[in-house]
């Protein structure tokens, strides 16, 4: 094999450059406008799964992605502002809503979970949030289109998913019940990021697909998610809190560090990008424990996914007999 030309190296590195640009660009826009709602962590997940990954992470087309992410952001905003329930109950209701939308969306676009839950967790009360979700999702789609036009990514066909099976509905109900039980505990003991919205996306993904790849490498996947969360928390702590540098520089460093982690592990689990960027929205008093909460939540949800996978294999073995 010959040495890659400069043009080939640029083409192969462009998805990574665009991913870093999206993550740092959000922080820059938030810094310049003073609107933290512009920093929408799930855009990092969309960048990981739609720009950086060799093939798209979800069965979805561009129109449905834009519609679902925007409409779910609107629902999350409305829940955060108008739902007359205790904080933990709003989180539980928001997550239960995501499960219904996810099942009947005709897609496997799990990031919509965070679009609804995130504003509730962060107590968002600004319309900037849904507007940002629309603009940033559209930007990711346009960048994906650019990569397709350049021949770096291919335009993958979309086939709407069939209506959910009884098993899928049951699993969604189990997920909702688990969050209903966890939410008051997390709020009571100040460990809300054990159910951080990107982790709920991860939970939905790994317990939906029967052969989800992350479930086959549980330790590596949990470590990968935790390190990406640590990348965001440590760069914010060092750049913003210790040295009072602009958040954009910290986000840029975090984005680059997260991509280094991606290439070391050989994984592009999309929620990892969102966990990295969520660190920039975590209250300062929770920042040091944030990676530990992510570790605990990821381990818990991975254990649930492993139990589900084992039960499924056992059921198939019984059927063969």
The global form is: globular
How many strands? 0
- Gyration radius, rounded: 19 Å
Low-confidence stretches: none
Question: What is the end-to-end distance?
Answer: 51 Å
In terms of DSSP E residues, the strand content is: under 5%
Series of H and E elements? HHHHHHHHHHHHH
Q: Main beta sheet: strand number and arrangement?
A: none
| Helical amount | over 70%
Task: Enumerate how many helices there are, as a single number.
Answer: 13
What is the structural class?
mainly alpha
The averaged pLDDT comes out at 94
Key descriptive features of the protein:
321 residues, mainly alpha, 13 helices, globular
Question: Would you write up a description of this structure?
Answer:
The protein is mainly alpha-helical and 321 residues long. The chain is built from 13 helices and no strands. 46% of the residues are buried.
């Amino acid at each position: 094999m010959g040495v890659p030309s400069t043009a080939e190296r640029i083409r192969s590195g462009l998805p990574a450059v665009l991913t870093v640009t999206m993550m740092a660009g959000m922080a820059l826009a938030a810094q310049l406008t003073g609107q933290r709602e512009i920093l929408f962590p799930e855009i990092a997940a969309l960048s990981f799964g739609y720009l950086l990954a060799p093939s798209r992470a979800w069965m979805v087309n561009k129109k449905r992605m834009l519609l679902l992410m925007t409409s779910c952001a609107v629902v999350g905003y409305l829940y955060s502002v108008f739902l007359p329930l205790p904080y933990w109950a709003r989180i539980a209701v928001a997550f239960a809503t995501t499960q219904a939308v996810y099942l009947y969306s005709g897609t496997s676009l799990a990031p919509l979970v965070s679009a609804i839950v995130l504003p509730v967790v962060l107590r968002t009360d600004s319309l900037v949030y849904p507007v940002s979700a629309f603009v940033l999702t559209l930007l990711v789609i346009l960048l994906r289109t650019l990569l397709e036009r350049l021949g770096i990514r291919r335009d993958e066909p979309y086939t709407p998913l069939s209506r959910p099976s009884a098993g899928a509905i049951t699993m969604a109900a189990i997920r909702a019940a688990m969050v209903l039980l966890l939410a008051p505990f997390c709020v009571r003991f100040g460990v809300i990021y054990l159910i951080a919205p990107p982790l709920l996306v991860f939970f939905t993904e790994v317990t939906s697909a029967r052969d989800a790849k992350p479930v086959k490498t549980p330790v590596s996947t949990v470590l990968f998610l935790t390190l990406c969360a640590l990348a965001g928390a440590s760069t914010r702590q060092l750049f913003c809190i210790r040295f009072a540098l602009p958040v954009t520089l910290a986000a840029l460093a975090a984005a680059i560090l997260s991509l280094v982690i991606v290439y070391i592990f050989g994984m592009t689990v999309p929620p990892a990008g969102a966990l990295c960027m969520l660190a920039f929205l975590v209250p300062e008093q929770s920042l040091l424990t944030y990676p530990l909460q992510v570790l605990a939540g990821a381990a818990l949800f991975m254990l649930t996914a492993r139990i589900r996978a084992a039960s499924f294999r056992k059921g198939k073995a019984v059927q063969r007999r």
